[in-house]
Amino acid sequence: MIGMFWIALVTSLTAWFCYMNTSEEIPRILAMAVGTLGVGWDIVIAPWPLQLALVLLILYWTRHVSPPPTKAS
């Protein structure tokens, strides 16, 4: 499973590199689609410590994005 994680990660990074260095539209769209699918697949098959770290990061980040509580009068 770890091997599949690394393959998907390398594929996503390669797609990101192609997306950044291509000026034509269709290859950019395809590179973006492959990169998005690769990142999604990486999240699904990542080892549990990485998934836990990602969940904690999302919970911490959204806590600072939400508006402050209003005072009840």
What does this structure look like?
With about 70 residues, the chain is an all-alpha fold. The chain is built from 3 helices and no strands. Helix 1 runs antiparallel to helix 2.
SSE topology:
Blueprint: H1 2-21, H2 25-45, H3 48-65
| Form type | flat
State the distance separating the first and last CA atoms.
55 Å
Mean pLDDT: 85
Low-confidence stretches: none
Nearest-angstrom radius of gyration?
18 Å
Beta fraction of the residues? under 5%
Helical content class: over 70%
Structural class: mainly alpha
The overall strand count is 0
Largest sheet: none
Provide a count of the helices.
3
Order of helices and strands: HHH
What labels would you give this structure?
0% strand; single chain; mainly alpha; 73 residues
Q: What's the quick description here?
A:
Helix content is 81%, strand content 0%. It is built from 3 helices and no strands.
